[in-house]
Write a structure and sequence with these properties.
With 417 residues, the chain is an alpha/beta fold. The N and C termini lie close together (9 Å). The chain has two domains: 4-18 and 230-416, Enolpyruvate transferase domain (UDP-n-acetylglucosamine1-carboxyvinyl-transferase, Chain, Alpha-beta prism), CATH 3.65.10.10; 22-227, Enolpyruvate transferase domain (UDP-n-acetylglucosamine1-carboxyvinyl-transferase, Chain, Alpha-beta prism). Helix content is 32%, strand content 24%. The protein has helices at 22-31, 48-59, 85-90, 97-104, 124-132, 163-173, 189-201, 232-245, 256-268, 307-314, 334-340, 371-383, 394-397, 403-409, and strands at 4-7, 14-16, 38-42, 63-67, 70-74, 82-83, 107-111, 136-140, 143-147, 155-157, 179-183, 204-206, 212-216, 224-227, 249-251, 272-275, 280-283, 293-295, 320-324, 344-347, 352-356, 365-367, 387-391, 413-416. The protein has a four-stranded mixed beta sheet with strand order 22-23-1-24. 51% of the residues are buried. The chain binds ligand EPZ. Residues 22-23, 26, 93, 119, 121-126, 160, 162-165, 186, 188, 304-305, 327-328, 371-372, 399 line the site of ligand EPZ.
Length: 417
């Protein structure tokens, strides 16, 4: 299994170019099933989750080509209605294909994605949303079968906000008969990107980015060409790398409204962040300031996908920070690994931990536990004294394109073995 070897204390500085968001491209790739035509998508990141989704689309009959940063997907001949268990096991977010599949075919089957390292990840909200749209759902031996004669627009009221369930509801409603009204919708920027992609195909959706989304069903969707929004979480991760190592960073493309929940917190930690015409610059603090308390929340709150990266930053702050993880039940697995590198972290409950800043971190042997937890270890290694070996880096490579090359271009002493 591959590892990263990082020698710390180099400044991470220079100009960052980041491509499209993982959490935007995955539902957009699922949506290409709906137009029974060609979709050309630009700014697509070269990450392993995209390749899993390509294999899923090919397994049901799509023709897919990917070169440079452009995906071309031909969904004219979707002729298979089952998503193989191996794909769902490999990438649980493949459940996002369910809404698009049932929007295209009368009966589909997909295995239950189950949980992952960070939590049980139930899909009850996804299934209730589809049932609202006249889908009959049965579950046998871990396989979910969804059938409908036709999709009927309806009101969907989510009792809790869910990014994936909102996306599945949108995908299934696009070609339903009549109007679908989604209440308590998730408001993440990636949902807005999905709306814009679907509307570019000829869908009639409005309200994404707010908690109310309205969809007027259409009979047909057309070919489309689209470019995916930048990855706010990947950008935030590199911003933390520069803040931790005293480097000055320029981000070529970043959308202010997407970044502010992250940049506001980094500003409180002492960073000087200025937004430019198309991106932003970050000047690091001399000493990282504690932000006292950080609670993760759905957008526009502080994103759970940046919690572990911010924790790395706070390990070198001038005080104590309390972290409250409200979205997932097991998203502190990186704490024990950071402690191995000299961080002072105390788990108060399974959702609350206390981080006391130390003068410096030391290199060591650590193991990546999940995508964003692994990223927090890379950040700690970049700032630590000495050499760090990070194993199980396949987790990290699911969501960060060319991490090793990007960091090396910004001054890191990193190699992959
Ligand atoms: C998306 O996951 C993202 N993944 C996650 O990013 C992100 O952390 C999460 O949204 C929250 O922003 C993708 O977009 C591919 P949820 P998703 O449904 O849709 C509970 C990363 O690191 N819930 O908003 O699965 C659930 O257990 C990944 O890039 C139910 O109870 O997240 C969780 O506690 C990690 N029933 C909460 O809601 C359901 O039916 C939020 O989950 C669905 C979810």
């Amino acid at each position: 299994m591959s590892k990263y070897i990082i020698n710390g204390c180099n400044k991470i500085e220079g100009t960052l170019r980041i491509r499209g968001a993982k959490n935007a491209i995955l539902p957009i790739m699922a949506a290409t099933i709906l137009n029974e035509s060609i979709s050309i998508i630009h700014n697509v990141p070269c990450i392993s989750d995209v390749f899993v989704m390509i294999r899923i689309l090919e397994s049901i009959g799509c023709k897919v080509s990917y070169s440079e940063d452009t995906l071309i997907i031909d969904s004219s001949n979707v002729n298979f209605n089952k998503i193989d268990e191996e794909y769902v096991r490999k990438m649980r977010s493949s459940i996002i294909i369910m809404g698009a599949m049932i929007g295209r075919l009368e009966c589909i089957e997909i295995s239950h994605p189950g949980g992952c390292a960070i939590g049980a990840r139930p899909i009850d909200l996804h299934l209730k949303a589809l049932e609202c749209l006249n889908v009959k759902i049965e579950e046998h031996d871990g396989v979910i079968s969804c059938c409908r004669q036709y999709l009927e627009g309806n009101e969907i009221r989510f009792e809790r906000t869910s990014v994936g369930a909102t996306e599945n509801a949108m995908l299934a409603a696009v070609k339903a008969r009549g109007i679908t009204k989604i209440y308590n919708a998730a408001k993440e920027p990636e949902i807005e990107d999905l709306q814009n992609f679907l509307n570019a195909m000829g869908a009639k959706i409005k309200g994404a980015g707010t908690d109310y989304i309205e969809i007027e069903g259409v009979d047909k969707l057309d070919k489309v060409e689209y470019s995916v929004i930048p990855d706010r979480i990947a950008i935030g991760t590199y911003m933390v790398a520069s803040a931790m190592t005293g480097g000055r960073l320029e981000v070529e493309k970043a959308i202010r409204a997407h970044m502010e929940p992250i940049s506001n917190v980094l500003t409180n930690a002492g960073c000087n962040i200025n937004y430019t015409e198309s991106g932003l610059t970050l000047i690091p603090p001399k000493k990282i300031k504690t932000i006292d308390f950080l609670k993760t929340s759905p957008h526009p709150g502080f994103p759970t996908d940046m919690q572990s990266q911010l924790m790395s930053l706070m390990t070198l702050s001038d005080g104590i920070t309390i972290f409250f993880e409200t979205i997932f039940e097991n998203r502190f697995m990186h704490c024990k690994e950071l402690i191995k590198m000299g961080a002072d972290i105390k788990l108060l409950t399974d959702k609350i931990c206390m981080v006391t800043g130390v003068e410096s971190l030391c290199g060591g042997k650590v193991k990546s536990t999940d995508l964003r937890g692994g990223a927090s270890l890379v950040l700690a290694a970049l700032a630590a004294e000495g050499e760090t070996e990070i194993s199980d880096i396949y987790h990290i490579e699911r969501g960060y394109e060319n991490l090793e090359e990007v960091l090396r271009s910004l001054g890191a002493d990193i190699r992959r073995i």
